[in-house]
Structure formats: C-alpha cells, structure tokens
Prior knowledge:
By secondary structure, this protein is α+β, with helices and mostly antiparallel strands.
Amino acid sequence: MKEKNLHGLMTMKKSITYRLIAGSILLFTFAFGVNVILNSSAVDKLCEEAILSQYQIIGQNFQRSLRKVPITQDGFSGGYDIQPLLNKTRNQLLMVTDTTNGGASLVSKEKESLITVSLLGADHETLASTDPSVLNTEIKHHHQAVIAFLNKIEAEKASFYRSNDVYLVKYPSNDDEGHLNATIVISIPIGYVQANKNILIHQDFLSLILILLLGIILLVLICKNIKDADCRHHAFSKTRISLLLFSVILSAQIAFTAVTIITFTDQYLVMNKDKARLLVGLLKDKIELNTSNRGVFYTHLPNTELILKEILADSPELSDISIFDYKWHPLYIATDQKALNCLAATTVQVENIKKTLPEWDPAYNVRLTITNGNDKTIQGYISANISKPALYDRLIEIALDSITILVISILFLVEMMIFIFHIVDEKKDSYSFFDAFKKRLNLNTIKQTIKRITAHNRTSQDQATTAASMEPRPDIHYGLMRPAAFLLLFGYDISMSFLPLHTEKLYSPIFGLSKDVIMGLPISVELFFVGVCILVSGIWLDKRGWHEPFITGLAMAALGTLYSWGAPDVMNFIVSRAITGSGYGLALMASQGFVIEYSDARSKAQGLAYLFAGIYAGSLCGGATGAMLADRYAYSSVFFTGALILFMVIVYSFIFMRDGMRKPGSYKKPSQQTVVVPNKTLTRFLSNRIVIALVFFSSLPAAIAVVGFLNYFSPIYLNRIGASQSTIGRVLMIYGICLIYIGPLVSRYVDASNKKRLYIFIGCALGSIAFLTFNVIEGIIAAAVSMLLLGLSSSFVLASQSAYTLRLKVTEELGAGKSIGIFRSTSRGGQVLGPIVFSWLIVSTNIEQGITYFGLAYFASAILFLVFTVRDQQQMAF
C-alpha cells in the first residue's frame, strides 16, 4: 500500500513537472516572440530610414543642381539637355550602393535597372528619365506606383514610399519664385536596402538564439525542482512558480531589448558616418571640379558658407561642416545656428563660431582632403561632425519603443500565464501537458457542440429548459473568458490611435458637415451602436445564453473591421464602424454574462473584476501595438490584423469554452422571478436630485471628456504637431496604465469611505485640470500630462460613481441592476457626444483655446455636482 501511494505521488509529480515545463516553454516562446516581432518592427523602421537617407543625399544634391535648369511646362527651354545630369545622379546612386556595407553583392545586376532618376511635370507626365521605357509613354513598370505615391506621401507625411520591389523618394523642384515646376522621383531596389538591414538582423538573431536557449534551460531547471510537498498536497504554489517564471521571462526580454539597442546604436553610428562621408565627398568633388575646370580657387567660391548651411538643413544628423586650408585655418564654417565666411569675418567672429563647434571626436567626425586636380597636392580639408544630440534623440526614440514593447509583453505574459495555469490545472492525473489540447482540438467534439447549439435553436424555450435541466452543470471556470476578453479588446482597440486620422484620409464632404466633424463621426456612430447592442445583448443572453450574442458579436466585429480595411470612402467607413461597434457591444456584454453564469455568489464580484482586468489590459496592448504597426505599415494593414485577432477569439471560444455553450435552464435558481418595476419607482429614481446631479454633472461630462480627448482629440492634436504614430500610442497608454494599476487602489479607499461624493468631485476636478493644462504647456508633454490626469480622474470617477449610486434609497427601491443599467446608459450617451463636442470646439475656436473652455466648463459641472449633493445623508439607504 505504501509503495502504491509512493508510486502515485511520483506519477503526480511527473505530471505536474512535465506540464509546467511544457507550459512554461510555450509561455516563454510566445511572450518572447511578441517582444522580438515588435522590437524588430521598430528597429527596422529606423534602420530603413537611416539607410535610405544616404540615397536621399544624392536626391537633394540633384535637387539643388536643378535650380539652374530652365524647366517650362513643355519641357526644357533653349534645347537644354538634362540627360547628362540624370545619368550622373544615377551613377552616384550606384556608387553609394556599391560602397555601403556590401549592398551590391547581395543583389543581382538585373536589379540595377530599377535604380532610376525621373523628372515629372506638373501633371505627373514624365519630362525626362534614366529609364528610356517611360519617356513619352504612360508610366510603366515600377513607375506605375508613382502617381499613387505622390498622392499618399503628403497625407501620410512620409519621406519615402514602398511599392512592390522598389522604394520611391520624391523631391520638389521649385523655380526662382518658389513655385513648383517639377518633381524628382528616385527609385531604389528594396534588395539594396535589405542587404544593409541584414547585417543588423544577423547580429540580433545570434543574440536571440543565445537568450532563448538560456531562458529555456533556466525554466526547465526551475520546473524540475518543484518540492515534493507541493505535489503531495496536490496544490503547488502558483504564486511562487509564477514569480519565478515571470522573472526569467522578463529578464530574457530585457536582455534582448538591451542587446538590440546596443547593436542598433553601433550600426546607426556607422550608417550616419557613411552618410556624412558621402555628403562631404560630393562637396569635395564639386570644389575640386570648380578648381580644375573653371580655374576658380576653392577659397573664392561664391556663397560657400550658405551652401554649407543649406546642406546642414537637409542633414539633421550633422551638427556642423567646415572647410579649412592646408594649414587647418578655417575658411568656411556652418553650424545649425550660423554660417560664416571666415575670410571676410573678424577674428572675434571666427573665434566665437569656433567655440560652438564640438570637441573633436574621431568616432563622430568625418574629414576628407581637398586636392589639386592637376598635381594632386593637398589644398585643404573638409570636416563634418555627426550631431550627438540627434543620435541621442534616435536612441531615446528606440528606447521608448522598447519600453512600450516591454509593457505590452508583460501584459501579454500575465494573460498567457493565467491561461497556461488553467490548462495545467485541468487534469492533474494526466501525464502530458498536451493531453488537454488534444481533447480540446478534437473535431468530433467541436461538431457535437455546433449540433447541440443548432438543436437548441430549433426547440422552443420550454423544451430547451426541460432538456437543459436534465444535463449536469458543466464544470467551467469563469477565468476562461479572460483570455477571450483580452483578445477581443486587443483586436477591437488596435485602431484606436488613428481612427480620426484614417477618416481624414478618406474625407469627402457629406451632409454639409465640416471636415473636423466628419473626422469624429465614425467614432460617435460606433459608440452609439455599442450602447444599443449592449442592451440587446443583455436581453439576448438572458433568453438564449451567453454564447449566441458572444459568437455573433465576434463575427460582426471581425467582419466590420475587415470592412474598415477595404472601405473606399468615408460613408463606407462609417458603416463599417457601426457594424464593428454593434459586434463589440454584443460580445462585451455576453462576456460578462459568461462570468455571471459560471460563478457563484461568493466569486461573482471577483470574477467580474478578473474579467475587466483582462479587458483593460487588452485595450492597452491593442492601442499601443496598433500605433506601432501603423507607424511601420499602412492604417489599413492594422485593420486587417485586428480582424484576424477577432476571428481567433471565435476559434478559441469553440475550443476552450464550448462546454458552456448551452441555453440557460438548469442554471437558473427556482426562486428567481421576474420583478415588475412600478412606473412610480422608476419616476422617483429619474427625478431624484442626487441621480440628476450624478448624470448631468458627473457621468455625462466625464464620458464626453474621456472619449472626446482619448479617441478623437489626442490622435489629431499629436499628429498635427508632428508626433509619430508610435508616440501617439505611448501617450494613449498612460490612460490605460492608470486604470489598471491606480484604479483598484483608489477603489479600496472609496469602498471604505462614507464620503463617496468627495471622490467623485476629486475625479471631476482632476479631469478639468487635465484640459486646463493646455493653457500652461503645449505639445507632447501637455498631451502626456493631460492623459495622466485624465487617467487619475477616471480612476476616481469610475470607482466612486457606481458605489455612490448603489447607496441611494431610490436605487434600493428600483433594484441595483436596473439602476446601474440606466446610469451606465447615460454614460454611453456622453461617449457618443464626445467626438462631436470636441470637433465643434476645434471648429469654433483654436485648439488650445477650445480645450481650455472645455476644462472650465468641466470644473463648473464638478462644482454644481458638489452643490446639488449637499446634505445627501437623508437620501442614503445605509
């Protein structure tokens, strides 16, 4: 008997150990993969821009040369031959490709034909090109994308455009009066750029493999050392093991992020030195050409200091450029602040500008020798310094992206750990971790579930109830809904940071409304249908069960997001957001119905809090990830990604929650009866002084403020001041982080306090200060501070409003559920009004002034709430 018990204990330990090993490796691989993908995307974009900037130098040099070319509407006046200049520019592009990090060695010679320089007229007709096939004909080959490129590049504020197998870069050519008379378009094969990026990818890949292997080894060692006592009591310490797994996986992610930043720093410096060397080389060639061909000595070139200043303006990576004679006496110096001809300046002026130059650092300096074209004797030197502040700005940008990715990865990790532990707990007597998955992935059981649901749909309500009463209650944990809710919000909110900006791209006048109003219309329509369908879902799930509105809502949200992906104009986009909002409303309410159905009286509140933690985390991750993807790819691609994630939730539901897909029947308590609310009770609730104050002076203003600022104003404002899409996503993350980490802390104090109205006032006051901030500071800092204050405001308001409402006598008379439902519906009304109100503020006044007015109005409503709720103790039930 003793041996049998010992054998059982050893079997149990092996079961738990192998389950933990398999689960932790799966968890590690997935969380680490998310980090790698997002980090690679962020670094790839910066690396791509740095590599292409070397080619852009050639384009800018050609752009300056065109100022002396007589361009007319019909071509070139005076029989000017532009072809030699075009060919020279193309040869310079080929030279860059052959000398930068071995790019040409990885691309076939056939691809060199894709390197072209074209000059387009005002109507996008080709005036001249190094590609003969496009002259005097329709644009062919890769040039078919040029027109689309010219249209898109302005809307997306991009410096280049990727089309099929080439990058296209444009430069405007203006006449002497500053009018556009032509457009330069340069095409570079993607292979050349990719060849340079492969160096960075190769270095990162080796680090990735090493960190991955070390992480897996540590995880195996941790899981192998589970104490016998844990297995003997059949309840190993989840907290202890979770902390250990979390520490290992987080450390691996931090290590990979650090290696990525260090590798990028080194490579970015090399690319910038190559760019500086190229720029200085072009300047050197120009000086030597003038010296040998025209007999103009380089010390007497006209306006040289202004040319240097213009070059610096086109190259923010450089801090200064200087030309010296052969004795290293300064002749011309240009910095980002000033340009000086030292030959015509006083000694004091020369000394003053020399003081602004950075100390010589060979790691950040490029210098070339100017020689005589005839005897190659040294005539002077050109020196350029790479700007350390510009480099640090790039490093800060990549560091902020990496921190954002770490936050997203941590939240992903937490959600995955919760899911993995559900699987580990499912069958402790099973030897393999994957036994649970094998059972879940059984197609026959999935088919049986669909048949059962279909059969229930064909029966009457009484028949379904009778049949359900004969079935045992499924043993399902309410926590299974949390991963689904996380992914639902992730897919739904993935477009949160750019919805009004995408609407702007599709804009066309409709209904006589202004552009600013139309930009907010899709959000308002979407939130209106969210509110309507939440009510519909509540009725639906009571009668038919949680699964029908949940699956239907997911399908509608996914199809609506796909519709957004392909919407050709603003009207279609508005319709697509209405479908998406309807699906989201159905699924959101149904997810709460699942938790309520499969939790008891003791775990119901915990279950709902558990669910909403996943919802907030999903919203935070979705918004931030969508912003980063939009910064790298097109907006439409992000919609497509969101649709795929929503379809994944449907698959997850059928695999892991199918046992709970039954009509309500046996789960309803016999004592439950439909309560008819007298009209007088409803009237007393709606006309109550405290309720009116809560609705009109707290709930509505707070909802208008959050949705109007978060979903409409912030993306537009930050985009207008030149912030990247990733920066917009990071600013929006601040609000979600406050709700996740500060909200629960505030709710503890609210529950313990008898003065909940003061917490509501504090929340509204913080919200008003968030908008008044724009009267003091501006820019990204103002938006970030306002988002933080608004997050703190919502943490106070959301925690205290419901608690305050539930204490009222009229709430007790009407019923807590109905009272909160009515109260929350008014909040939905405010959410619909949010974008409309903020668009009106932008149209009526300037942005900062309109936001200040709204802040003052919000503060006034907070004061009115405080006044209307004076002596509220008589209204309290307890």
